Amino acid sequence: MNAIIISYPGNETLTASIAKGIDGKVGEIQMRHFPDGETYVRLVTDVLEKRVFVVASLHRPDDKFLSLVFFSTFIIIIRANILADNFSNLTKMVYLLVKTMIVLSSVSLFI
Fold first, then answer.
1. Which spans in 33-88 are helix H?
2. What are the residue ranges spanned by the domains of the chain?
3. FRET pair for 9, CA 20 to 30 Å: which of 32, 53, 54, 98?
């Protein structure tokens, strides 16, 4: 499988097991927390033309939820722009909106 599995902090062991089980590769992110409570997340691994999975626990969700939503939305936007290269701008916008809503719905089911 042409997949990248990305681990949020604390889920590295599970991520490695999933990657091995589906013959995928473990992706890399850089994460920093600023004194004012904001979180910086940088995607290091190239995800172009790959399926992307993010493994994250929502234990203590106040510390993780918002950065996880933004990060997931960012990945969807990257992927949608590749898949929608031949679409009109309006179609791209609708596609991105629908994909983002699906992720937000999926994430909220786990809370």
1. 65-83
2. 3-109
3. 98
Q: Alpha-carbon dihedral of residues 77, 26, 55, 24, nearest 10 degrees?
A: 90
Give the residues across from 55 on adjacent strands: 7
pLDDT digits 0-9 by tens, 32-81: 888 988 888 888 888 877 888 888 887 777 777 778 877 877 777 776 66
Beta bridge partners of 41: 31
Q: What is the pLDDT of residue 40?
A: 85
Cα 44 from chain centre:
12
Closest among 32, 29, 52, 53 to 42, alpha carbons compared: 29
Which two structure tokens, joined as six digits, stand for 13? 């062991």
71 exposure class (CB count in 10 Å sphere: 0-12, 13-18, 19+)? buried
- The two tokens of residue 38 are 């904001």
